[in-house]
Amino acid sequence: MSSSAFSSLTDKDRVTRRERVFGYLLGPVGGMLINMAVGSYLIVYYTDVLDLTPAWGGLFLTVFPLASKLVSIVTTVWVGRVIDRTSTPHGKARPWLLLATPLMIVSAILAVAVPNAPTVVQLIWVVFTYCLFTDIAFAVWGTAHNLMVPLASRRPEERGPLAVLTNMSTVMFAATVVSLVFPLVVLPAIGADKTAWLTMMVILTAVALPLMLMQYYFTRERVSEQTTASEPEKLKDQYKILFSSRDFVIYVAVSTLYVATMGVRAVSIVYYSNYVLGSYNDGITPTLIQAVGGLPIGLGLLFVWPLAKRFGKRNLTAVGLLLAFVGSLVTLAAPSSLPVVLTGQVIMNLGTVPAAFVFNALLGDILDHIEWKTNRRVDGAAVGVWNVALAVLTALGTATFTFLLGASGEYRAPSFDASTGVTTGFEQTSAVQGAIVFSFAGLGAVMFALLAVALFFVKVERDLPRIQADLARRSGDKQEEPLSPEDEPLRVVPENTSVDSPERTIDAR
């Protein structure tokens, strides 16, 4: 990694416009696009293409995702530890973005390249490729990716917008393709055809590869370059430091439970559209839910960061989650009525905008607070803990969903006629429909309310200005160093006032 071929293409001390666009807005789309496609539709591939729902009496699709998390726990802890002990001229987390890229590409393709073989062989293949992607490849990439914003800059005015941009890449771009294009165009086209699924994944990874490389080359770890703090030598010391921070514990609990809850919703939306609201793979119903329900996200992006600066990231996220709770209740009031569901999803998505776009900026604030208090950096360990919690909770959510579908033996998979190329769907029982409705809206109603209450115990933003000033003095970082020309903020100067009078100069960025 000492070769200049691996050097970042941004060499400024302040975050530049090019870095924001290519490194944090467009670059992360690649990795998240693959992960979302696999996370949202691999279960559909298992149930509707491979017809694995009856395996082990309906328990296979429940047991093996949970068991695989044992691998995930080991790898995420190891990755976090290795990142904290990595030292290269290009940072400690960024090299792992690059190393994980080919592994994610290959493992995603293998996941849908299941051979035509006896069921036991297919099950072995499924277990191996699922673990390879979710528990190893994405564990490495995801840990490094989640550290890019906290390590990019110490300045809240830079770190906050980077968090918004990174989540825009996930929600506005990757999620748009997965939640709108897939159900409208891709799924109706590929149906239950195994060959078509493999072709789709090859095309998807080919699109993602240059974006993943873009993320590596247009990011920079300024905090790693500036910090004078050291990493604890022993893993138990890192965890002791992390879990002594109440803010960190609450952050991990709230953020992972939120992502896991939205993940269950993402997995269930295809089933909800097919069997509660519409006909099988009509391509219209899920698109309406995602498009109409997602309209507030674009509107919310115009206001979310200014509101977060004014009221605080914690406060805005808590109020948003309460609004999402109300939207979930609206959906549950008439779950089979499309107009009511669309109304509920509009309200819910508006409420989740702060949690989706600004909340993860708190992690950088919390890690800075830990450094200020202990003179230790535990970035990799922190994201490792976050990833372990997320992996376990997501697996529990997915396992519960598949258990509710398959354990009773009532879920009926569609059939694919190879001679005609037609996929035929089936009506589901009321018990199966009830499980789908709970996964889509009921779980969110419970979790959004609980998480909003928990957030009021987070206090890190209260002392942040003093913490940032102290850390800047320790590292010798000058907060008022000149900006590069492309990032110079607008300066509105009253008439007859010298531009050298800082108290009369307004930063109107």
Write structural notes for this entry.
- The structure is a single chain.
- The chain has one domain: MFS general substrate transporter like domains (Growth Hormone, Chain: A), CATH 1.20.1250.20.
- It is globular.
- Strand 1 (415-417) and strand 2 form a beta hairpin.
- It has helices spanning 17-26, 29-49, 55-58, 60-84, 94-111, 119-146, 148-152, 156-190, 194-217, 222-226, 235-243, 246-277, 285-301, 304-311, 313-333, 338-357, 361-374, 379-406, 430-455, 464-475; strands at 415-417, 422-424, 491-492, 506-507.
- Helix 8 (156-190) packs antiparallel against helix 13 and helix 14 packs across helix 15 (313-333).
- It starts with 16 loop residues before the first helix and ends with a strand.
- 71% of the residues lie in helices and 2% in strands.
- It is built from 20 helices and 4 strands.
Features:
two-stranded antiparallel sheet, Growth Hormone, Chain: A, 4 strands, disordered C terminus, mainly alpha, 20 helices, two-stranded antiparallel ribbon, 509 residues, globular
Total number of beta strands: 4
Q: Label the CATH architecture.
A: Up-down Bundle
Poorly predicted ranges: 478-509
Strand order of the largest sheet: 1-2
Order of helices and strands: HHHHHHHHHHHHHHHHHHEEHHEE
Number of domains as seen in the coordinates? 1
Give the overall shape: globular
Name of the CATH class: Mainly Alpha
The rounded distance between the terminal residues' Cα atoms is: 37 Å
Q: Any idea what the radius of gyration is? A: 23 Å
Mean pLDDT: 81
Quick one: CATH superfamily? MFS general substrate transporter like domains
Helical proportion?
A: over 70%
Q: Supply the helix-strand structural class.
A: mainly alpha
Number of discrete helical segments: 20
- Share in β-strands: under 5%
Query: According to CATH, what is the topology?
Result: Growth Hormone, Chain: A
